Amino acid sequence: MTPDEACWYLGISPEDEDLDIDRIERNYNSRMSIYDPIRFAPGTPEYEEARRMRTSIEEAYEYLTEAYYDIYGHEEEEVPPQEKPSASRPDNHSEKHTPKPRGNILLKLALLMTTVTAVTLAYFLYVSSDSPKDDRDYSRLMAEIEQLRAKTDIPASTSSSAPDYADLVERVMPSIVMIKTDSGTGSGFFVSPAGDILTNWHVIQDAGYITVTPQNGKPLTASLKDYDAKRDMALLTVETSYPVKYLTISPRLPRQGEAVIAIGNPKGLSGTVSNGIVSAFRENNTWVQFTAPISPGSSGGALVNLRGEVVGMPTKLRTDGQNLNFAIAPGILSRFFQSAKDKKPRNLPRSSGYTGRDDSEGMIFVRKDESYEMYIAADYIEYDRAARQAAFVSVWFPTERTNRQMKRDPNFKAIQGKDFGPCILLYAVDFDDGTYLHLRTVNLYTDGSIARDYVKPQSQYRWEKPSRGSRVDELIGAVRKYLDRGI
Asked: What are phi and psi of 247, to 5 degrees?
């Protein structure tokens, strides 16, 4: 307690010419009522704090009141050192008293409060000690008082309400790995000292090879132990000559609102950290919804709490909202790991549930019928979240029959001896009402040259509703599914 704080408790100032006994008594009583332990249940932190503050105020009241009388004195009366001032002062107390020379009053008060604080703290040490309380403890208590006196001035706290993640990240980062396959990149994390790694199944699905690169480490060839395609989980393993640092999976769900960080390799940027909170739980607590930003490539990374425990594995996001990200719940991860950790490595299953010409080229297969085989160019989807509108490029490969029909169409004016290749169409879609706008069509020959490039004039823009089950309807559905995709 500093001299200024003590004066505030009593409502007095070192610069006062008069000692207003009534004001001191009122302030004293008001402070004591605030810190009355009877207001709280015994044993609670509030009760103990009130008891401590009440003792401090009483000590400060007695010592400071005595000090003021020593410093200022009084013409008519002397107040006994141990007697508190009366609430009703005598009539002659209002007369002007002659103050003593002030000298360095603040210095005296500072020394006095140092003593008060040290004695108060020593008292609590003394009464809480289990040793016999006799004269033999005097020297020990005095030594403690001297030590406490040096610690009387405690600087204001500089801590922030926001947690500092630096130590946590430094501790967790060595357990995060980057996963590379012949079709893309993703994330994973060690879950055992033997080199077991948890990741998403879709990160390694249809991979011909898998390499794992720890933070600041060399690439390692990984083998597959087991996978759960339905839950989108896979357990890999690597051979190391030393135990690796690994993360522990939390035995319980995090609390809603709890602070978390997500660590992974979004867009191939290794060791990226973002922070947020747990937003909610979905589908019978199988998904942890969180706000820490993630992107494609974050899949299979770790969502950890402030204790460094894994509370989820980031798996998917929704791009039609703000920070709507989802991680597989820790209980599901733990059960899968326990069931798979003792299995021997197996061959990588290829073409399991795979559709599309070549996913590594960013082509999403949509439909094949008697006329066209249709894809969406994943790298050319633009989404306006506020307007809930998207623009996308679709690629249609004509069948032989359609190729012959196009050659006979006078609008194309096909060059003799050339065959038609892909047909590229640019669309816009409004997800609020399900309408679309056909903006541009480019027809190519098989040699890559352009057969026709038609841009619809703005005066002809007309938003249309696709018929159910039509090609455009399926394209729009595929784009919507892609925007609500796994990452």
From this structure: -105, 145
